[in-house]
Amino acid sequence: MFITPAYAQTAGAASGGSTAFLVQMAPLVLIFIIFWFLLIRPQQKRMKDHAAKVAAVQKNDQVVTSGGIIGKVTKVDNDIAEVEIATGVKVKVVKSTLSDVTPAGGSRPAND
Q: Which parts pass through the membrane (predicted)?
């Protein structure tokens, strides 16, 4: 015999190349789908909720800036909010730098 059985088996498997490619790619696609539903999608939802909270900031809301300053909103413009951080001390902050917004008269919502 000139052809070994092992060589004969690999020669037959080479003819189904497209099927083998799909079988090799299936775990990668499955991992991406799981990654999407467990990490990317919830993060996008949190970002969307945060952007909605910041866009809806109103007078008398309590806010926390990304620098950790806590204050009460006294005036709101398009992109800027005026925050009172102490009696008579007001600072202007860019609304996109607000990290948390608590509505006036409301308690802090529980974290999910």
A: 20-40
